[in-house]
Amino acid sequence: MGGMRQTVTGERVGGERGYRRSRSGLILRLPSISTRQHPAMQAYSAVPSLRACSQCGAVNSTRFCGECGALVAAEPESTRQILKESVAELVGVDAGVPRTLRDLVLRPVAVVRSYWAGNPAGYTRPFKLFFVLAGVYLLLLSVFKPYVFDWEQLLSRQPEANIQAVHRLMADRGVTAEMVNERFQQWMNTVMPIISALMMVPLAMVLRRMNRGQPLANHVMFTTSITNSIWMVCILSSPLMLLGPTVFTVAAQLAGMMFFAVGIFGLYPGKTRARTTLRLAGFLLADLVLTGIVVTVVQFILLMAALLI
């Protein structure tokens, strides 16, 4: 065999590592099998710091005692970790909130698409974030009162008999126009986030007519996410409230139009750009009409409350 030692089938040939003879007489090189562990397995199998069992005193390197089976206490958490977890539990948010807020401002369409696909990107759920931002936005509105509402102009639209009835009610209860105005302004600025919440489902039904392939829940996710984007911009631009109600109101309205335009063109496109533009115009018109109706109803409710309380 040319100096090579004769072997039985399947045995190592000539002392060469990794070579074996097949049944047909050919010499085959087999892939060598490494005995080294994968880094992840090394980390898993690495022996951690030894800890004594609090029950029997036996020294262990695992979570459970090998003698009595009791749970071995882990290393104490750092003060930073404890504070971080405490704040997260108190506020009710997770570590993905900053990334979600960033992408809601910079990439709102990507965030909504992730929600529609089951949220593989791990964003904070839109409704959870909605309540967090609503609380922050409500606090800012109640402090700065950037929106101005004229209750007397609202009352002037009513029949003369209703106007006289309101004045008699104010006289009977000893309520002045200044008191009514202060209450009305405060409450209207406070309930603005609630008005936005009341608009989400009606606007989602409008969007459903544009894209019937998506369930209503996905359209509600869209309106909620875009509302979160608008509120995030309003919160960031809250210093504009100090410049007067007009500046902040215009900025908030422009932000709303911009985000809804990005969302409609990205997620509800028509066959042509012109049709998508018409869809956007129709949606903004529906938003304007529905918002006007809801705001008017809420204004009358709060005006009556300001007169009676």
Report on this structure.
- With 309 residues, the protein is mainly alpha-helical.
- It has helices at residues 39-45, 79-91, 97-106, 108-116, 126-144, 151-156, 160-173, 177-210, 216-236, 245-267, 273-308, and strands spanning 19-21, 27-29, 51-52, 59-60.
- It is built from 11 helices and 4 strands.
- Helix 8 (177-210) packs antiparallel against helix 11.
- It is extended, with a radius of gyration of 34 Å.
Quick gist of this model?
The chain has 11 helices and 4 strands, in the order ββαββαααααααααα. The protein has helices at about 40-45, 80-90, 95-105, 110-115, 125-145, 150-155, 160-175, 175-210, 215-235, 245-265, 275-309; strands at about 20, 25-30, 50, 60. The longest helix is centred in the last third of the chain and has 36 residues, at about 275-309.
What labels describe this entry?
two-stranded antiparallel sheet, single chain, mainly alpha, 4 strands, disordered N terminus, 11 helices, two-stranded antiparallel ribbon, extended, 309 residues
Low-pLDDT regions: 1-19, 37-48
Q: So how many helices?
A: 11
Strand order of the largest sheet: 1-2
Q: Could you say which structural class the secondary elements and strand pairing correspond to?
A: mainly alpha
Q: Give a count of the beta strands, DSSP E runs of length 2 or more.
A: 4
Order of helices and strands: EEHEEHHHHHHHHHH
Write down the Rg.
34 Å
Q: Which percent range fits the helix content? A: 55-70%
User: What does the oligomeric state look like here?
Assistant: single chain
The average pLDDT value, as a whole number, equals: 78
Largest sheet report: 2 strands, antiparallel
Shape descriptor: extended
Distance between the termini: 111 Å
